[in-house]
Amino acid sequence: RKQATEYSTSSSDDEFESKPSLTHKAKRNLRRRRKLEKETKQLIKQEELKRLHKAQAIQRQLEELEERQRALEIFGVKLERELRGESDSGTKDETQMLHEWFELVLEKNKLMRYESELLIVAQELELEDHQSRLEQKLREKMAIDGKSK
Question: What spans are recorded as compositionally biased (Basic residues) (predicted)?
Fold first, then answer.
């Protein structure tokens, strides 16, 4: 009897000691998981801020581009009037005005291509933002424990 009691006591001690170590491991795992989640959220925020800054820069460039296009348009209208003879500018010859007009058209085409590129980059940023949100939703759904799924 004495031996059986000692044996059962020692086995219950082992069980008692193993339980705290399991909870310690669980707590450690929980801390690690929370730390990883926190770091992931910080990275996501940083990426969002980068995309926001890029989007703002693109918006500024588009506004500047629009101003330059307006100025070119105004200059082009003036130049066309001079070419038609509607304006009294006897200082420039026709070949010089045609040369300026062609340069103006080339510049305007260049600006339009640049605008298209900026719009494509802006669309890419929107898609990246959408992807990030979807990934976040997926992470949230994956974090739900099995019973509530």
Answer: 22-35
Strand runs (DSSP E) across 35-103, as ranges?
A: none
Q: Which residue do the tokens 């006897």 mark?
A: 90
Separation between Cα atoms, residue 110 and residue 63, nearest integer Å: 16
CA distance 70 to 146: 60
Model's pTM, two decimal places? Answer: 0.68
Tell me if 111 sits within 8 A of 68, measured CB to CB: yes
Domain boundaries, the chain: 31-146
Helix, coil or strand: residue 147: coil
Report phi then psi at 101, rounded to 5: -65, -40
Query: Which token pair is 67?
Result: 């101003």
Residues 134, 16: Cα–Cα separation, whole Å: 44
